[in-house]
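haha ok so turns out i had the wrong file open the whole time. this is the CORRECT one, sorry everyone. sequence first:
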Amino acid sequence: MNDLTKSQKRTVRELLGDAHEAEIASALIGVETAIQRWRSAEILPSEVSERIHEFHKETQEIFKTYNYLDPMLALARAVVFGFIEISRVPEELRPRVRELETLLRRD
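then structure:
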């Protein structure tokens, strides 16, 4: 990210913040579903607790992704998984994101 301008770095950080929030929100759906199922007497409270524990582990991985992965790679990953629309990525950074997307899709 050293080769990015200050403005580009700021934009990438903002996009990664949005992606981080979107990914956490996505993970929370499983917790919400478990709570609804418990309220409907479909599952036990212990199963809700287990889902909350899984959510906690998931959010730790999400944190690592957005705080330790190369920012441009994290951005490409966010685009691949639909947490950020490519249209939000500055035009001059899109070719780089697309290149990294290709690498991510191979794995």
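Helices lie at 6-39, 45-68, 71-80, 94-106.
again sry for the mixup
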